Amino acid sequence: MLIRKPAEIPYSQVTPKELYLNRRKFLAAGSAAALGSLALPITAYGAKLSAAKGKPAFIAEDKVTDIKIVSSYNNYYEFGTGKDEPIDNAKKFVTNPWNVSVEGEVAKPKTFDLASLMKVAPLEERIYRHRCVERWSIVVPWIGFSLSEVLKQFEPTGKAKYVAFQTYYEPDQMPLGKYAGIKLPYVEGLRMDEAMHPLTLLCFGMYGENLLNQNGAPVRIVVPWKYGYKSIKSITKIRFVEKEPPTTWGMYSTREYGFYSNVNPEVDHPRWSQAVERRLPEISPRKTLKFNGYGDQVASLYNGMDLRVNH
Length: 311
Prior knowledge:
Elements (H helix, E strand, L loop, with lengths): L2 E2 L12 H5 L1 H6 L2 H4 L23 E3 L6 H4 L15 H4 L9 E6 L5 E4 H5 L5 E8 L4 E11 L1 H4 L10 E6 L19 E5 H4 L5 E6 L2 E2 L9 E3 L12 E7 L6 H5 L23 E4 L6 E2 L7 H4 L13
Parallel strand pairs: 2-5, 3-12, 6-13
Antiparallel strand pairs: 1-2, 3-4, 5-6, 6-9, 7-8, 7-12, 9-10, 9-11, 13-14
């Protein structure tokens, strides 16, 4: 089994003590600028990181990717289509105040401010693999809690079969969005059982801090067994719906980007093979794991489905 409740300590506790104690000197020396928009400690929003004194809730048995890579190699088309553009173009993105509405086929719709949303459940650290459809992958210590902790509060009606998500889009803050080549605001969706699965993370932070702007601040979804474009960034709306919701990349090309988008080495992208991936910063390819290695946890969600057709 690739996911387990481990004996390892969380990422926040493996930083060498001398580096941690000299963090202010480190930031003053200019290294913070290299990471783009550094967030305040996650406690600034009034929520405590429970993993700081405990163990990660889930862990991938892989080496964690350096934060310098994760913060500077991003897909966030609202801030530019180049991987190196969001780190610069998202610096002034305003993420406070922030509200997320939950609506649709529910008895108890609600709008959260960010501080209230973060207090729904104890925050925990989860080290997940993250696989991009473009064949690169990373391993990140995310901070959040299962999305189901929020969704279960609202008494979905019998019509609620899917959960749709919408990201923030404001052209004045995201002027490069008009060159993105995709319809904005960005939208995504999950089947209800996928959204309620305990691995599906409502994420507020990474590497012991709040999310960086270029990585989806202030709140995003992380679905570790699916290609990265399913893990929608900077969400503002969660909606329970009866029918399969449209998705941004699905509208761009259904043939290339199916609704389910499970990591599957047996199903090629029309323009390239998905059988191998490159774990940044490695050069040599490695074999792609079906469901990104989370098959023991999620394969049963798709019993009886042809995953070549339902790609």
